[in-house]
Amino acid sequence: MLQKINRSIGNIINLLYPPVLGAVFLATTIHLNLSYSLKGFSNVLESIITFASIIIGFYTAMYGILLTTSNTSFMNEFRRHHVEGIFQFQLYDSLIVSFTILMMSIVLQILIHYPGRGATWIFNIWSFIFGYFIATSYRAIALLLKLLFLRKPNLPNKPNVDVDKKMQQIQRINKKRL
Fold this sequence. Notes:
The protein is an all-alpha fold. The protein has helices at 2-31, 41-68, 73-80, 84-111, 117-148, 163-177. The longest helix has 32 residues, at 117-148. The N and C termini lie far apart (69 Å).
């Protein structure tokens, strides 16, 4: 019972920290009166576009690996513990947010040349999405790397057959052939 409660609390925290981090980014942006006209912001957008593209590529590769493991005992354990839904949500959430930050950063590259209230609103939304993106990227990559490097259960060791015994077996087989 306690393990189930801890898992539920962990799921709630795991789902809540991306929007909380996004809200912190937005509050910081507003509190410090940051804007898209900040010197060097265009370079920041270029870096974020590159990073988001790399993250999307990583997700694509990892999803391919997950597809090949869909019928393994590990994934059956996911289903048995009813973790599949939260896992699927986190992966979709990360991918959608990655595409969103990519598209918004491209749009902001244009809007920085057209100051106004609309550009300010989009910048503020972008700052929230950026914080959310950082959190979901970390969450998804950590989760996928845990899956990738998951240790397989200890299997019984094969008996150690030394070289002399193998040579004797080969000699017996050769004698039978003659």
